[in-house]
């Protein structure tokens, strides 16, 4: 796989979801049971937010009662999304810029899947491992190292 491949090749489906009224404890249990880092929050069949492990930990550390705080209370609602045909590298850049680790993939208004930084990182690292003679300096410039 290559960074110019499309997101549909690495996204996860089916998407693990919870209703907005799910307690923080139920969210934590779903994250653990599904082995994922984020869940889609759905209401009336529509994605309305994303709740991540980081959201759960943050609220518990601030003393939230896990039985009374809900997914709707802690979810991110200003969603950054991808389309199944978006390039992997472009999607990774979007995630870095938005400082998110999980991204819903939306197709015609419906959730087509989820992609995580881990999914994208595996592709990017694999390519970097095969380009041993290319170095990326802090400015982002790619320098080709010639060995003679």
From TrEMBL:
InterPro entries: CBS_dom, CBS_dom_sf, Diverse_CBS-Domain. Residues 11-68, 75-132 form the CBS domain. Keywords: CBS domain. Transmembrane segments: none annotated. Pfam families: CBS. This is CBS domain-containing protein. It comes from Nocardioides pini.
């Amino acid at each position: 796989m290559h960074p110019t491949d499309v997101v549909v090749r690495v996204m996860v489906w089916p998407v693990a979801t919870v209703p907005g009224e799910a307690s923080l404890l139920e969210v934590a249990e779903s994250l653990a049971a599904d082995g994922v880092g984020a869940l889609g929050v759905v209401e009336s069949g529509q994605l309305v937010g994303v709740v991540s492990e980081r959201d759960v930990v943050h609220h518990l550390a601030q003393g939230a009662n896990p039985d009374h705080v809900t997914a709707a209370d802690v979810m991110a609602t200003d969603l950054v999304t991808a389309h199944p045909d978006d390039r992997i590298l472009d999607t990774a850049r979007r995630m870095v810029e938005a400082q998110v680790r999980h991204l819903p993939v939306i197709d015609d208004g419906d959730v087509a899947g989820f992609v995580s930084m881990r999914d994208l990182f595996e592709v990017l690292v694999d390519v970097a491992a095969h380009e041993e003679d290319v170095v990326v300096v802090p400015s982002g410039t790619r320098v080709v190292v010639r060995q003679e």
